[in-house]
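> example.struct
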């Protein structure tokens, strides 16, 4: 009989190969009848597993879809055809899906950062018009940008969703311009033109 009855093989990262395993002490063969994608379509069917002693394996590399895969197989246990099955999960980062509290925290942080970034864009425009965009204003803009980068790292570590990752990368790329490049230009304008105008006004007043 099978030495071990596997119920689930675990969780693996998307687009990485998974070593499908089975163990049998008295089989002449162990085969995979099918591997089903999460939508129940067949990824592969009728393949022979490679045996090494009592251990059998097959390298499965069709893991481009997120979700739960089902592995069905059969073997000649004591000369009798016996079926077996187990599943494995594929996620974006190779880790189990996070609990709901983590997802809620992520959504809350994203909304806060997005709203604050929008506020800073409007705030910065108001100050650059007055040419009084100071070092504190620059620090706020840099800070919100790095907060967005941290959120991207948070997503990659805890959520591992490729769609969310691409969405956040888009915002990070936008943030390079709105929170780094433009505020730096605003600060330089304040130091140069703004300072010159203030000295000129003081000179006239004097």
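> example.seq
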């Amino acid at each position: 009989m099978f030495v071990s009855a596997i119920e689930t093989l675990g969780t693996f990262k998307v687009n990485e190969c998974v070593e499908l395993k089975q163990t049998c002490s008295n089989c002449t063969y162990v085969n995979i009848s099918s591997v089903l994608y999460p939508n129940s379509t067949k990824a592969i069917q009728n393949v022979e597993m490679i045996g090494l002693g009592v251990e059998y394996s097959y390298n499965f590399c069709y893991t481009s879809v997120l979700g739960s895969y089902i592995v069905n197989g059969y073997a000649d246990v004591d000369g009798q055809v016996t079926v077996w099955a187990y599943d494995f999960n594929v996620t974006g980062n190779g880790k189990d899906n996070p609990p709901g509290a983590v997802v809620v925290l992520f959504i809350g942080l994203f909304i806060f950062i997005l709203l604050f970034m929008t506020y800073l864009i409007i705030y910065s425009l108001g100050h650059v018009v007055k040419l009084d965009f100071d070092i504190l204003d620059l620090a706020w803009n840099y800070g919100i940008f790095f907060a967005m980068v941290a959120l991207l790292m948070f997503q990659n570590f805890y959520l591992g969703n490729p769609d969310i990752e691409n969405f956040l990368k888009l915002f990070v790329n936008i943030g390079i311009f709105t929170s780094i490049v433009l505020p730096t230009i605003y600060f330089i304008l304040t130091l140069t033109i703004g300072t010159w105008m203030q000295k000129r006004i003081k000179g006239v007043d004097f």
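> remarks
The chain has a mean pLDDT of 88.
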